Amino acid sequence: MSLGRMGVRAAQAPVRPGRAVSQENVEIVLALQEAIGETDFVQLFRDDHVWGRFSGTVAALFHPDFESANVLLGVETTYRGVDGLRAIWLDWLRPWASYRSRVEKIIDCGDRVAVVHRASGCPLGSTQKVMLNSAFVFTLREGKIVRCEGYPDHAEALKAVGQAE
What we know:
By secondary structure, this protein is α+β, with helices and mostly antiparallel strands. The protein has helices at 19-36, 41-46, 48-58, 81-93, 154-160; strands at 2-3, 9-12, 62-72, 75-80, 96-109, 112-123, 130-141, 144-151.
C-alpha cells in the first residue's frame, strides 16, 4: 500500500503480467477523482456551466463506448456516454441539497480499479448531515474508462472485483 497524490491508500491486487498497464489505469481513475476534488456533487452535476467545464476537462478520460451503472438492491440502472454519467448522478442527487465524497482507498485490479469513498450529504429540507459508504468500480480499455459501476456499499463493490474485505 502507498499514498497516492490525493493522500489515499492505494492497494494492489497480486502482481501479474501487465503491471505497467494496470498502474496506468489507476492513474487514469486518479485523474478523474482529482478533477472532482472537493466539489459539491450537487453543484457539479446540476449547474450547466460547472458541468460544461468539468465534462470538457475529463472527456478525454472516457472511451467512446462509456457507460455508467448504479447497482442498488441488486438492480442495475445503466446510462450511456458522458451525458449518461450526468444523468445517473442527477437521478442519485435528486433528494440531496449537498453531497460530497472523499476517496479513502483505490484498489488496482488490473483492467478494473475499485475506488472506496466516504460520502456526506444534507438531504433537501434538512440541516442534518448524513454519512454514507460507497464505492465505484471502473473498467478500463485502451487507456480509457469504458464503464463505471456505483455501489452503495464497499463490500459489494469489492466482491465485484474479487477483493473481499
